[in-house]
Amino acid sequence: MPTTTFRALGLVALTTLPLQAQETDPNLVADRQEDGRWVTAEDIPTFKIEDDGTVDWATFSGFRRYHAECHVCHGPDGEGSTYAPALKRSALTMDYYDFLAVVAAGRQKVGASDNSVMPAFGNNPNVMCYVEDIYTYLKARGAEVVPRGRPAKRADKPPEIAEQEAACMGG
Ligand code: HEC
Question: What distance in Å separates the CA atoms of residue 145 and residue 37, rounded to the nearest whole number?
Fold first, then answer.
């Protein structure tokens, strides 16, 4: 059936091209760890996946927070829904700071007839204390370096992240 062939080709493209991108795209490549989280050379949060599939703490944390706060509208695993866009793609195409701004302030299409609203999360510590992690997880999903579902293996939680979390949630 032609549809099956088409889908098979699509899968090949998805699993090979982005993996190369992970190694070369400066917006994806982990340069160093800062305060427990991996960042690119430009200080933008990113993922770090070991050869055996172990994900960094931020990616794992982002998986959990995304599925607590975002997936009801944006679909499981960042795949999108009929209501809201696939954030695994947005995390690759949107500027990081624009992404943060939309999460904090929300957004509504001007003149949208379907009344689709992205709520503002700026006052919600369960989102804002973990927004870097959510972004990191979605970027890893977009680059197809983590499969759908709960990551099987994760790094331990860095003590710096535990400290920041306590300060953020407490303050
Ligand atoms: C109540 C439903 C709902 C929830 C919950 C929700 N969103 Fe959204 N989000 C939307 C809708 C609808 C849009 C599209 C709005 C538009 O284009 O005007 C959107 C758009 C976005 C965009 C812009 C995407 C793009 O490509 O332009 C980002 C980023 C985003 N949401 C992040 C998040 C994050 C992160 C969470 C969880 C913390 C979240 N959203 C939770 C409904 C939701």
Answer: 17
Question: Among 69, 32, 56, which residue's Cα sits nearest to residue 161?
Answer: 56
110 C-alpha to center of ligand 1: Å? 15
Among 63, 73, 81, 131, residue to substitute to test ligand 1 (most atoms within 8 Å of Cβ): 73
3-state secondary structure (DSSP) of residue 117 = strand
Protein residue closest via CA to atom 9 of ligand 1:
118
How open is the CA angle 92-39-87, to the nearest 5 degrees? 25
pTM of the model: 0.89
pLDDT tens per residue, range 125-170: 999 999 999 999 999 999 999 999 999 999 999 999 999 999 999 9
Q: Is 100 a pocket residue for ligand 1 (Cβ < 6 Å)?
A: no
The total number of residues written for the chain in this structure: 171
Question: What DSSP state is assigned to residue 55?
Answer: B
CA dihedral 128, 114, 110, 94 (to 10 degrees): 40
